[in-house]
Specification:
1 helix; six-stranded antiparallel β-sheet; disordered N terminus; mainly beta
């Protein structure tokens, strides 16, 4: 498996559909108990499930850890523009 040479690499580790660790995350677009949307170096990633909870978030390192019952992961090439704000940006305005 070859890593992309453009930008940071993106990796995910999922254990038993209950715990997930992601790297290569540039922004958290939105999150609630049923859906977490992340902007990654490979496009937008939507994680759907039940009881989802973001346990660890370090945007400086591009890392996110979450728990809950993960039902699906969906990638989209749609990236948020520089003009759009993340959920954290809107919360701390």
């Amino acid at each position: 498996m070859e890593e992309l040479s453009v930008g940071k690499s993106h990796k995910m580790i999922i254990s038993n559909r209950q715990n997930a660790s992601f790297s290569g995350i540039s922004d958290v677009i939105s999150f609630d108990e049923t859906e977490v949307v992340l902007e990654t170096t490979q496009g937008q990633l939507m994680i759907k499930g039940k009881g989802l909870h973001v346990n660890h978030l370090t945007l400086e390192k591009g890392e996110v850890d979450l728990t809950g019952n993960i039902d699906s992961l969906i990638y989209s090439d749609r990236m948020t523009g520089k003009g759009s704000e993340s959920i954290l940006g809107r919360l701390f305005r």
